[in-house]
């Protein structure tokens, strides 16, 4: 085949010296002859004659070329036949097949080339260019492609526009949980002075936010009730919604409520109570009706403690579950481990003994029915202190798992819960925790005494507080988790009135860890995390210079001062609060304006009568350890704040600050009781920065800027533990 192709290319011109064939690279003809040679060379490659695809030319040249090419083709066929006969057997046959495939493929390509690219040019002559008139099938394909692209892109663009519209232009419809609950509720004119009313926080409507329960004393408009009670006062407990302050329920009582506690759980009861006579046989000492027994699991249980009555109500509806009259109640209820095996925590309260000889009685009550568990257990405490403030009772679990009750009159004593159970019921305790005794505590017991003396010294004990940071240090809660955290902690002891001693007792052996002597401490210390050592620190408020109040943060591990500042006295004794943030606590307290000492003096001085002329404005401050040289003023008021608490909001990572205040009214009548709820995150946004002196804390960093401070506080989130 190669020989045939070489012969097909023979043209007049210069011959090669060895091959005797035409060499187009050395051809020295004219420009026309070179063009003709090039056209001849394209012939075998394209399979087309000049008349087919090579533009216009002279007829003679085309004719001479045609005649000469026909002759050459005949010679090429003869030589090709000879070349094929020389090929041996199978190899020759394979080459013939490949040759046929080669030529058939060239024929196919030639036909397609003629269809697509050949034909007449714009002037009607033959040529290789594409026709000026567009292919109708190509146009249709382009139109179909454009339509398909449009069908794909248009919905995509519309979807993107909808997303952008929802994200940036249309405001999202937030539910009630996204609103910052801030409200104020007047409960009417209060009768009975400015004593702090009982206050408790618990989620009674199952919306994941703690609602407000408060005791109210008002003038009675009910003539029948006034005659039955013997005065013109009406006592009640009101449950308010955490979001709006709306009254959820109100329960009228015969006597003023002295304490409200929530968190007693009945859901753990193993089986429903039997009906009819079977229920009476199962619970012969039960004081609750059967309808109330079946209603107990429909919501949280709250205890309303009056002077001589203890009533359990359904926290959602306010309906009474049971009520007992154990005597003159002197304390809050203490949640205990299950003593009867009914899977419901039992209770302990302190009462005045009926024999008028002993100082105090401890009573065990069934948490399920309110029935007395045995007899009151009396104690004579005059050996240690003739008169003093009632301390406790509080439940404590040692590291070994032994149960003790802490209580006293101006002192702190401890008694084994197992001993109380045995003396009350005459039975041996079933629970291992009741039978267990801790050797570290038992060695403090004196001979022939059932009491273990904890506090030392002659000063009266004013406060006994578990050293636990966060909202779990809620002394009005009966929640098992809160009680578990506080019962296993160390204890903070405050002794003395005119001058105070602040100390921490180790829970493992009741020994004193450290003691700090200071001026009189006016309220319960507030534990919280100020430094990063993992041990809660203490916010205390104590007397300073005349008409001054000093606020101090004390290291819980060593008793050294971490932060302190002096303020104008706000003329109220209200305990501070701590709220857990990311790793540290934010401290809240009420005070007047901070006192800034002059630069040329080392001690604060106040002009005589200078403070008396100032209006009594109480301000709520927030202190965060990240910026100890600044305070954030969250609120200010001229009302007298009676009590306050913090309600944590799980969905928003926020907290509400609940206050109950006495607001003066016109005339000489009693003041009005006002309950107010403030979102802390909203208050932070509107808060004012108050800069303190450099002496408030050691190791003060560079003076922070306003933008940096605002950015930090507005990003705070609050945790429940």
Automatic annotation (TrEMBL):
Leader sequence segment: none
Localization in the cell: Membrane
Domain of life: Eukaryota
Sequence intervals crossing the membrane: 149-170
GO CC, one annotated term: membrane
Classification lineage: Eukaryota, Metazoa, Chordata, Craniata, Vertebrata
Region (Disordered): 1-126
Basic and acidic residues compositional bias, start-end: 83-99
InterPro entries attached to this UniProt entry: Beta-prop_FAM234A_B (IPR055409), FAM234 (IPR045232)
Keyword Zinc: no
Residue stretches making up the FAM234A/B beta-propeller domain: 294-697
Major localization listed first in the record, in broad terms: membrane
Alphabetically ordered keywords of this record: Membrane, Transmembrane, Transmembrane helix
Name this polypeptide is given: FAM234A/B beta-propeller domain-containing protein
Organism: Oncorhynchus tshawytscha
Membrane topology: Single-pass membrane protein
Biased composition regions of type Acidic residues, renumbered to the chain: 29-39, 72-82
Annotated Gly residues bias: 116-126
Coiled coil regions, renumbered to chain: none
């Amino acid at each position: 085949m190669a020989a045939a192709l070489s012969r097909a290319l023979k043209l007049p011109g210069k011959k090669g010296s060895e091959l005797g064939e035409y060499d187009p690279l050395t051809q020295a003809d004219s420009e026309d002859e070179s063009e003709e040679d090039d056209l001849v060379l394209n012939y075998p490659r394209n399979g087309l004659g000049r008349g087919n695809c090579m533009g216009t030319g002279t007829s003679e040249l085309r004719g001479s070329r045609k005649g000469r090419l026909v002759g050459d083709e005949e010679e090429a066929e003869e030589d090709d036949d000879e070349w094929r006969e020389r090929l041996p057997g199978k190899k020759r046959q394979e080459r013939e097949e490949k040759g046929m495939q080669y030529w058939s493929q060239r024929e196919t390509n030639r036909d397609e080339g003629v269809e697509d690219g050949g034909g007449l040019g714009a002037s009607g002559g033959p040529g290789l260019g594409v026709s000026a008139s567009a292919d109708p099938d190509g146009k249709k394909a382009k139109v179909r492609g454009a339509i398909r692209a449009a069908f794909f892109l248009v919905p995509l663009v519309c979807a993107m526009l909808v997303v952008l519209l929802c994200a940036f232009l249309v405001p999202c419809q937030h539910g009630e949980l996204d609103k910052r609950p801030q409200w104020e509720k007047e409960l009417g004119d209060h009768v009975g002075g400015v004593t702090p009313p009982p206050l408790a926080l618990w989620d009674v409507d199952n919306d994941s936010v703690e609602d407000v329960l408060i005791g109210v004393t008002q003038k009675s408009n009910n003539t029948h009730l006034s005659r039955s009670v013997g005065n013109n006062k009406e006592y009640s407990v009101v449950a308010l919604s955490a979001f709006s302050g709306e009254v959820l329920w109100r329960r009228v009582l015969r006597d003023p409520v002295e304490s409200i506690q929530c968190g007693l759980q009945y859901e753990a009861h193993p089986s429903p109570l039997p009906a009819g006579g079977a229920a009476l046989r199962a619970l012969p000492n039960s004081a609750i009706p059967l309808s109330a027994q079946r209603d107990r699991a429909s919501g949280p249980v709250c205890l309303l403690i009056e002077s001589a009555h203890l009533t359990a109500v359904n926290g959602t509806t306010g309906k009474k579950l049971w009520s007992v009259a154990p005597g003159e109640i002197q304390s809050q209820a203490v949640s205990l481990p299950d003593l009867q095996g009914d899977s419901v925590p039992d209770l302990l309260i302190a009462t005045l003994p009926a024999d008028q000889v002993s100082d105090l009685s401890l009573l065990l009550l069934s948490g399920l029915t309110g029935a007395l568990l045995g007899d009151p257990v009396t104690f004579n405490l005059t050996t240690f202190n003739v008169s003093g403030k009632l301390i406790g009772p509080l439940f404590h679990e040692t590291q070994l798992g032994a149960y003790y009750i802490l209580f006293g009159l101006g002192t702190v004593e401890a008694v084994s819960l197992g001993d109380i159970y045995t003396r009350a019921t005459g039975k041996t305790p079933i629970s291992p925790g009741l039978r267990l005794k801790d050797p570290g505590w038992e060695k403090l017991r004196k001979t022939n005494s059932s009491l273990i003396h904890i506090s030392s010294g002659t000063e009266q004990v004013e406060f006994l507080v578990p050293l636990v940071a966060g909202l779990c240090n809620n002394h009005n809660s009966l929640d098992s988790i809160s009680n578990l955290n506080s019962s296993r902690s160390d204890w903070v002891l405050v002794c003395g009135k005119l001058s105070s001693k602040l100390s921490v007792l180790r829970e493992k052996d009741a020994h004193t860890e450290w003691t700090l002597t200071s001026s009189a401490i006016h309220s319960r210390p507030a534990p919280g995390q100020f430094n990063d050592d993992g041990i809660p620190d203490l916010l205390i408020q104590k007397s300073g210079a005349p008409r001054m109040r000093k606020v101090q943060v004390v290291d819980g591990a060593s008793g050294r001062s971490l932060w302190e500042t002096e303020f104008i006295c706000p003329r109220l004794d209200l305990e501070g609060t701590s709220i857990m943030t990311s790793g540290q606590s934010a401290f809240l307290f009420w005070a007047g304006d901070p006192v800034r000492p002059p630069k040329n003096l080392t001690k604060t001085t106040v002009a005589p009568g200078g403070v008396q002329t100032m209006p009594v404005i109480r301000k709520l401050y927030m202190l965060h350890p990240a910026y100890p040289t600044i305070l954030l003023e969250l609120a200010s008021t001229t009302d007298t704040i009676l009590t306050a608490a913090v309600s944590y909001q799980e969905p928003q990572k926020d907290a509400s600050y609940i206050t109950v205040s006495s607001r003066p009214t016109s005339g000489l009548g009693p003041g009005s009781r006002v309950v107010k709820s403030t979102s802390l995150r909203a208050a932070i946004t509107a808060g004012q920065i108050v800069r303190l002196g450099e002496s408030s804390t050691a190791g003060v960093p560079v003076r922070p800027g306003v933008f940096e401070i605002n950015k930090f506080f507005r990003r705070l989130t609050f945790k429940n533990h």
